[in-house]
Structures are given as C-alpha cells and as structure tokens.
C-alpha cells in the first residue's frame, strides 16, 4: 500500500531524502569540527527533496484521472500504464493492454 503507483513511489523517495538529510545534520553533532559540512550536506538532501516534491506536484496536476475498475476509486495515472494507488491493480490508457495483468 505504501508504494503503489508511480506518484506515491516518487513521493516516498522524497520523504526518505528528508529523513536522510536530517540524519546527516544530526551526525554533525558527533564531530563538532565538521558540523558545518554535515549541515550543508543535510540541507542539500532536504533541498533535493523539495525539488522532487515540486516536480511531482507539477506531474500530478497533468496526470490522467481514471476510476479503477477493481476498487471503484478515482486514481491518477502517470504515463500510459500505472498501478492503482489503493489496490495496486494494473491500469492502462492503451486499449491493447486492456485486461492484461503482470506479476512484476
């Protein structure tokens, strides 16, 4: 459930970057002489996360909204083929993929 759909996978990666950045900043307290370096490195991770959140927000506004035939909830598709954000059913905008399931 946590990583279903391309949009949620990218958002989860951005959240992970925030936690890594904060962790790097806290490591700076162990070596006070290197604190500035760890703070700058941690801030770069957090700023990268902000950039990813902005980028995925822009992609999300242009993503196609469809109703999942399995769980009947509205979800967004990024690209031609994606998973439902709720039930992980494979969804496609391409008619030739209709009805096909993959177990990847």
Can you tell me about this structure?
The chain is an alpha+beta fold. It is about 50% helix and about 15% strand. It contains 2 helices and 4 strands. The strands form 2 sheets. The chain has a two-stranded antiparallel sheet. It has a two-stranded antiparallel sheet with strand order 3-4. Helix 1 runs antiparallel to helix 2 (about 35-60). It comes from Lihuaxuella thermophila. Keywords: Cell membrane, Membrane, Transmembrane, Transmembrane helix. InterPro entries: UPF0295. This is Zinc-ribbon containing domain-containing protein.
Structural class: alpha+beta
The gross shape turns out to be elongated
Largest sheet: 2 strands, antiparallel
Work out the number of β strands. Answer: 4
Distance between the termini: 15 Å
Short synopsis of the structure:
The protein has one domain. Helix content is 48%, strand content 13%.
Reconstruct the topology from this structure.
Layout: H1 6-27, H2 35-62, E1 64-67, E2 74-77, E3 81-83, E4 90-92
Helix pairs in contact: 1-2
């Amino acid at each position: 459930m946590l990583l279903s759909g391309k949009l949620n996978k990218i958002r989860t990666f951005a959240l992970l970057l925030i936690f890594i950045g904060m962790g790097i900043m806290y490591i700076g307290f162990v070596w006070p002489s290197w604190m500035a370096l760890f703070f700058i490195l941690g801030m770069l991770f957090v700023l990268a996360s902000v950039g990813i959140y902005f980028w995925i927000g822009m992609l999300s506004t242009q993503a196609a909204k469809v109703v999942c035939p399995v769980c009947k909830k509205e979800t967004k598709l990024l690209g031609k083929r994606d998973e439902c954000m709720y039930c992980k059913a494979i969804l496609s905008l391409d008619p030739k993929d209709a009805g096909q399931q993959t177990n990847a």
